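Cross-posting from the chemistry board since nobody answered there.

I work mostly on the small-molecule side, so proteins are not my area. We synthesized 2-oxoglutaric acid and want a rough idea of how it might sit in this target. Sequence and SMILES are below. Is it possible to get a predicted 3D structure of the two together?
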Amino acid sequence: MNDAPIQIRAAVAADESAVAGLAGELAQSFPFSRARFEVSYRSLLDTEDACLLVATDGRDYLGYLLGFRHLTFFANGLVGWVEEILVSRGQRGLGTGRALMTSFEQWAAGHGCAMVALSTRRAAPFYRPVTPSGQSMSVEMTNFGPLGWMTDAAGYRYEARHPITGQPWPPIPAVLLTLWADVTEGGPGPDACLVNLYRADARMGLHQDRDERDFSHPVVSVSLGDTAIFRIGGTERRAPTRSFRLASGDVCVLGGDARLAFHGIDRVLAGSSALAPGGERINLTLRRAL
Ligand SMILES: O=C(O)CCC(=O)C(=O)O
Ligand SMILES: [Mn+2]
C-alpha cells in the first residue's frame, strides 16, 4: 500500500491480467476460469453499454467495478446497474469502493441513466422476527458477522445462519470493524452486527441487550436514514428515562454503566432523511456475543 491518491479510470487491454487477479478474488458462486475471463474481458471492452473501471494508486491495482446500462419500464428508460465491485482485501477501508461507485454514477449520469442500482446477491434478506411469546416484531432484521442475533419461539439467541435462507450471515463490512476499533480502543473485535430496519410505524420496546456473554464489551450502534426518538433509562425497568434523537450518521455506544441500561425506539420521524427512499431507518448494532 502507498499513500498516492486513488485513481479511477476506464479499463484498457493492458489491465487484463490485473483485473483477472481481482475478479478471481470476487468469484464465489462459480469457480473462476481464466480462459472464460479473457473472452468476457475482451468483449466487454468493446461493449458500449458496459463500464469497466479500475482503481489504482499508480503502482498497485486496488479494485475494479463492472457496470452496465440497460432499459427498464419502472424508471422510464435507462438505469445503471453495478454487476461486480471488488476492492482487494489488503486495500479496504481507504475509500476505493466509494471512488469506484462515484465514477460509475458519473458514467451512468453521462449515459442517460435515471438511477444506479447494485446487485446484492449475497446480502442476507430482512425478515420479520417473532418474540418468544409469539408476537411479530414491527422491526425487520438481518445480520452481518459470524453470529447473528435472532428471536423465535425458542428464545433470544445468537445463531451462525439466517433463519429463513439457512445461509451464513455475510461478513461485517470493514468500515464497521474500523468504527468498533476506534470506539473500543483496541478491544477484541465484534462477532455480530444486528441490522434493524424500521419502516412505517416500526418501533422497539424498552429492553436490555443481555444475550451476550461478557457485558464488559460495549454495544456500538450506527443510525442511518430517518431520525429516531431513542429512549434510555437505568438498569431497572422502572427507572426514569430520557429520550433524544438519533439522526443519520449518529453513533451510540452502550458501554460501562450504560451497558445494561433499558433502551428502545419510541418512533421514527418518517421523511426526516433523504438517504433511504420512501422513509426508512436502518440501525446497525455491533456486539461481541461470545
Ligand atoms: O434501533 C436502535 O437504535 C436500537 C436497536 C436496539 O436497541 C437493538 O437492536 O437492540
Ligand atoms: Mn438494544
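Reply from a structural biologist on the board:
Welcome over. Reading the output above for you: The two ends are 33 Å apart (CA to CA). The pocket of manganese (II) ion (ligand 2) is lined by residues 207, 209, 263 (CB under 6 Å). Happy to explain the C-alpha cell format if needed.
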